Amino acid sequence: MSVVPQGRPSAAGLAPRGIVASGDQVRWMGSHYGVSALSGTTVHLEPAPGGAAPAVSVPIQFLAAAEDFAVLDRSGRPVSAQPLPNWSMLEGVSAECAHEARMWRRHVIEVDTGLLPEVPEGSRPREGYDPELFTLVERYERKAAELRAVLGWKVSWKTVQRKRLAFLREDIWGLIDKRRTRRTTVNGRTDARVVDLLLALQERQAKEEAATDARTLFKNLRRAARARLGPGVKVPAEPTLYALLKRLGIDALQLRDPTRRRKDRLNRPAPPFAVTTATAPGELVQIDSTALDVKVLGDDGRPTQVELTAAIDVFTRSIIAAVLRPKTAGRRKSRQQTRALLSTGTSKGRATKAVDASLLLALCMVPAPMRPGFDAAASAARSDLPYEELLEVDARMEHAAARPVIMPETIVIDHGTVFTGQTFFDACSYLGISVRPARKRTPTDKAIVERTFESIKSLFSQHVNSYTGRDFSRRGKEIDPDRLWTLQELDDLLQEWIAVGWQARPHEELRSPYEPNLPPLTPNQMYAAGVQAAGYLPIPLGFADYLQLLPIAWVGVRDDGIRFKNRTYDNFKGELEKVRNTPSGLKGKKRDRWELRYNPYTPEQVWLRDHRSGEWITAVFKHQHLIGAPWTQHLWDSATAEYVARGGRHTQDEAIAQVLADLLERAGQGPDDPGVVSVPDGYAPVPGLDGGWAPSGDGVFDPFADAEALDLDALGPLTVLELDEPSLYAPAGEEIAPGPAHGPDAPGGADTEVSSLLADLGDLDDSLDSAARHLLELPAETDPPQEDTR
């Protein structure tokens, strides 16, 4: 603590700031002392005349820390210390403005105390500034006259008074000319209410109304301002409004953009933009679905599109799970068919369901097995994964593919119906995963999974022979429509590509922060580095865990069994007897019904839970023996629609099962009209190298396609047919006479001609292959059937 030395003038905290000096009178520990000497940081104190305290030497920090320490003036009163000026307030202002504030500080201190700052010890006030001889108004007038005469400032004594009072309230900041610190606002001189109204109209136009121009927006602004703000509020002219739009970051030409583009621009996140980061595997996982732009042969025998749902780990950029589902285009149905399918919840198209999102979580936590046909390079043992270390703690890694096993901690989802359903949230709660929904229409919240989908389409989808492109402008040449992969075959290809093509491919975002010049890492290498710090904990998922991830329904058990989705299920071992026609005791929305778990992709069986014992009871579809093959809920809906179109009822499950069996048999024969499948240029079969290749068109071979045009004028009359080898057409030694005598109109002409050809087959060249000779030796079916006269 520093104080004002004795003898220096002080006035309300404006005195010059100093230190304890020799000869000062101080108060400490209830006694008065005089400072006899200073040596370094030690102060030597002598008792005041008449005092009983002994002489002491005290460090300056002890003096300053004492509560009653003070430096006394000649009258014995404590001298108030001046606070240090807050020079940081001058940062951010112009140098000229800061220099002027420092000059005003010197002048107002002289007006207040009579002395300029940092004057020598014992100085006397200048003429006209002594506080004991002149009043404040006289000193104000003296200072104003001095500033006008010496510096040429146009100030009055009231200006000096205002500056002094502002200095006492705000220190150095009160001396700054605030007009020089004002920043130009975005709206300028336009009323802020008009600006708010303009932004509201522009936002409403981007969300609701059709595209328009700036003039229409300004016209609506004037009408709204007159109606809401009153006629007294002035709306600027159009040139000013155009400049205002520019300062607000709104391009007047973009007001005519399509609605989708304007909505996307309105929902952009506020800058600064940053890359989503994570510090460990599984800390942040992003999940989303997209169309794969590939056609496959659906389970109903028709070509269909495919939808991909994937989970991407942000730390390693690994595709830790991927699920493919077919998507069948909706077809127009009659009112009777629509009413019949309402009870099954059938939508106009089939794609990813809530159960797929739940099963995707389970796939993230178990090793991906090597499938038949996988290349050896897809094995985890031959990858950059820490195979030996993982195998010690998890025996399932022995036959695993080169894909990391990651337990998600936080999952980012969008607002799709697949992820916002209760099934997905129940699965995440069961597995201990927190869910963070992204903002609506803000794909940048899950930008990594969105960009990964684009990479999958460019690195995998476009190499599939049935690639269609995301729109017609990206479709290529037509190929044979019968060459379609099944969904299972395409899924095998995708899973192998993830292990070989994606996990082993260097990623530009996976670089070392300590050595940025090193080459980028692959997702598997990044996982190997992260698992060393985060560790690996195997999570065994059993059959009960699998059932907990399935959708739930609440049903009753009747005499004939469980009625669910217009089908009847029963347990032929008698395990349902203890719950048949028995209320569950669960109240509320459950209404005494029992918990049922089902999988829409294997609806031939369901599982009912007895909450009293905790056991699961398996119930099988009663008419499964009529179908005999695996089927899905989508095929059941298709069979139901077909049966209803014939005049049946959607509740007759036995008849529908027979229709479903016929549908599966037709599906096994392939599509009747597969349509057109396209691939990009460069991926169609090479002409001449594929034995089954045929020219594009209707497929009919034209032998005269390359022949020159025939000149009819150059041809003469055709009179005699010249034969070079008569032996090919008649027996040896017999000449063929010209004319119609040997034609079919001659008596016995047809029999003679056939017999001649058959008799002469032995004279043909033996170069004919056995198949052609066999065909030629077949008798002609030209003879009419002989009537039996017996």
From TrEMBL:
SUPFAM superfamilies: Ribonuclease H-like. This is DDE-type integrase/transposase/recombinase. It comes from Streptomyces labedae. Residues 731-761 have a biased composition (Low complexity). Residues 731-790 are annotated as: Disordered. Residues 277-531 form the Integrase catalytic domain. InterPro entries: Integrase_cat-core (IPR001584), RNaseH-like_sf (IPR012337), RNaseH_sf (IPR036397).
